[in-house]
User: Fold these one by one.
Assistant:
Number 1:
Amino acid sequence: MSLLIVGTVPSEDIPLLDGKCTFKDGHIKIGLHEFPVNRGTPALIAFACEVARLLGIDPPQALLAGDIGKGDGSERVYSRLCDTVSNREQKFIVFHYLMPDVHWLGRIMIRIQDLPKRPVMIADAGFMYVAKMGGMAQEFDLFTPDVGEMAFLADDSAPHPFYTRGFLLNESLRIPELINMAYQNENAARYLLVKGKVDYVASRDGIVAEISEPSIENMEPIGGTGDSLTGIVSALITAGEDIQTAAISACKINRFMGLLAKPTPAWGIKDFLPFLSTAIQESKNCP
Amino acid sequence: MIKKPRFLDKVAKQLRAIGSSDNGDPDRGLLLFTNTSDVIKAERALKKENLEISVKGPPPTVRTGCDLAIEFDLNVALKVAHILAEHRIEPLNIIPIKDVLLEPVSLFQTKDYGEFLMVRAANMKITIRKEDARIVNISGGGCPDVPYLADQLVGKTLGDCPPPISMGRTLCGYALHLAYEELKRACHC
């Protein structure tokens, strides 16, 4: 059983790719194509590949295309997924940087709902936005929002984080209240992993874990730290951990990477990869 | 003789339809476009001509996912149409509005990291090194232009980088631009 990563690469030169990923020397390779790991879906892939390697499971598959925001690459990915999702072997799917498009969401979800056994579905970034906007949040097993995105999930009227009402973005409103609002409005997945100063893992029944240590302030401004977290949690779930345990472990691993790396706010996400293996070990010793 | 752009006829037709609609007595119109980058171009062109317009979220009936629209005063509709024609920007549709529309995010959060300064607008964050106002990181967001914008902007200074709005094509790109503007205000750049 392996993981399917669905997303985009920030380049106009990448065609539609659908195949096994390898990560080597700072680059992702799929078929004959290579691209660097900065932020976005390539960062998610790099961390998922490395966790898969360290745990001895199959490397992830990826369905990707280049998209710099025109939506053309996302459309190719949506179309390919729609055509193939019924016959794919992967039982775990993580949806990532894709142009939010409610029409494509509907077409894909119809195919998935028709499957005899639904895959485990994780959504982050643009696909999480459209899952909420399209009223399909509850079909998903895990969302991984940051604080701003959590406010968006809590705001029943916002179709995109850009329109989140100000009072919900105010820090005086606590994350547990936002989580509660998102579940009340049916805008949350089965589990939420809210990444922030304190990470929260929650389900409809309430908050199941708060992870606040080790606390590395400088992680917040670094682009891709959310992508690494989503990559790690996706690989852990694929390796057989239940979603709640995997979410808690992933938060700890991401934090321990920060502790070991001692980054400044000017670091890049790929700079954390050398610390992943030790972070996995260290996190196991953390209660 | 300069040929009149075809879409001016289309706009005139749409405006007549608004005039005869049974939608009460709308005083505002909404320009809808096929993509966010056209909205950004139109906003720039209309603001340059000092027209009072604002960027808003379209009503639910016409939303598709990553939408932005321009609200304008119907009394200056023809002027709007001419400016857009001049810039070869064609709206998908023009609709009358009476309802209150979604407002873009206007709340910013600033965090001081000593040597670095970060500003967040909605789901987008931009961080500079204070010493030379160099952009060191961009994070957050979920639309596919965000990683691309980060590739283009990280390493440049606030003074020498193109504004995110000139390359951004989505609402996340637009939110990043708002954070960038706020950061420039905070740094007096």
Number 2:
Amino acid sequence: MNSLWAVTLATLVKDIRLEWRSKDALNSMLFFSLLVVVIFMFSFDPLAEESRHIVGGLVWVAFLFASVVALNQTWARELRNQVLDAYRVSPAPANALFLAKAVGNFIFVSVLEALMTPLFVIFYNLHVLGPAWQLIPVGLLGTWALVVNGTFFAAMSLRTRNREIMLPLLLFPISIPAVIAMVAGTTAILTGENSAHFYIVLLLTYDVVFTTASLGLFGTILHAE
Amino acid sequence: MKRLFPILSVITAGLLAYALYQALVVAPTDALQGDVYRIIYYHVPSAWTAFLLFLINFVASIVYLFRRSQKADMVALVCAEVGVVFCTVVLVTGPIWARPVWGIWWAPGDIRLTSTLVLWLIYVSYLVLRRFSSSAQTQMLAAALAVFGALDMPLVYFSIWFFRTQHPQPVIGGGSMDPRMLHTLLISWAAFLCFAFLICWARYRLEVLQREVEQAHAMESLVGAGVTAKPSMPLTRGAK
């Protein structure tokens, strides 16, 4: 157990340091989601009242697409110099690697969301009518939902031809319930018309189920030869 | 076994013809919907068959994850392929039926429409994964994806729970369906099941042959390389 946390922490710190120095994933995600925001703004051009109803969808679609950009880079980085093969033959637990990657991606996507949310507020003249604090659990649980499956499927699509396109093809169908919960929950909070509790519970269930499944199957995926 | 195949084909053809006759001629016309409702004898049996095939795919994938059995993997592959075909039939006949009865092609908030669509999407992505993955690890990855898909389905169902559902509640066993209609429906389902089994069987045999051919090719190239590579190896190394 001790070694699991030690390896997780070591890999996580390494990934954060790499990202801090290169800023590859963060920069590309930021610019990508900025482009999505601007394109949506021109495509819809809503009034403040309407935008409250649609912006939940826009925000999460932008984050979903942007997170794919980061997720694709997670494992590709380990392919250079056969790092992943070295990891495979080392006695370190496979789940430590998975946890570190998932938490790392969670941090990167959260930073992106923290930077992009003010932009959405400005561009769409947002003013929250429901209990605003509930956006925090929806945001955190929703991000984890995207990232935990995304990290798993990115590891899976690493073994396929044209892996860059493979990740969204695998990730999006499975993510549909999470996306519904995120979008409907955010819209419920923004409009204040109904309660978001159901969606928060749904996201929590989704996170628990797929975190367990990913941890249970990651070893087999990593060592599949 | 091989002699059984043509016999089963004939039985299936007979059953399908009988089911069609029952559906178009014998079954009574619906009091509210008129003759349009007769599409139920294609729509519902296809849906049941598709769900059954996906269930078999899930079980076979679990078996593969534990036992690494090639047979389980082939069963999973075959069931996913045929299941996607039947699921496509459901998604095509559904709107055709919905348009005259509900007045719309598609009800976006409906729980069963949407969850069937998501199920279809998941299994299409499963087939895409099998197609694009390189040979050795495909089976493991596909089995893992099948498990993820199966875990996803209850969540899909609950996530649409809050929306008002437009699809009719299941009438089987509720006692509200005319017994002659139920009879026809069950005959149709039996015919569809036989048909699905027949296709799965043929596809399974094809898959077995394909894998044998692949293995033979691999063996041949190994043997060929073993004979020629040994003397030429130092030369090629030196040349590089």
